[in-house]
Amino acid sequence: MIKPMLYVDFNEMLEPNLVLLSVTDTKIASNGEIVSLSGGLKVSVYMDDMNERGHCDNLVATGVVEANQSTGWVAHVKWCCRIDANGIRHQSEI
Predict the structure, then answer these.
(1) Is residue 57 classed exposed, middle or buried when 0-12, 13-18 and 19+ CB atoms within 10 A define those classes?
(2) Fewer CB within 10 Å: C terminus or N terminus of the chain?
């Protein structure tokens, strides 16, 4: 089964392996599919990036959706992605 590829902003990390994912229960995947988010859902996440030559080389990671437990400026966000042990890598490294 192919995991949905969802856009995130890796500048919005709450912990070294936890990134904000969505304020709602759905998110549109890179293929246009509407993904219903729920705790435990395995997903792939990505963010646009370029290599040193200016060519597209997105940052990517895999992980599991979990409910946001944070307060303060991110309390309105419903879902986060807990990134697995592979971490965040450039697509060309996979």
Answers:
(1) middle
(2) N
pLDDT of residue 94: 87
Q: Residue 62 phi/psi, 5° resolution?
A: -120, 155
Looking at the structure of the chain, the number of domains it has is: 1
Domain range enclosing 28: 5-87
> Is 67 part of a structural domain of the chain?
yes
| Contact yes or no for 83/19 (Cβ under 8 A) | yes
pTM, 2 dp: 0.91
Pairing type for strands 18-22 and 79-83 reads antiparallel
In this predicted model, what pLDDT tens digit does every residue of 78-92 receive, in sequence order? Answer: 999 999 999 999 999
> 49 in a domain, yes or no?
yes
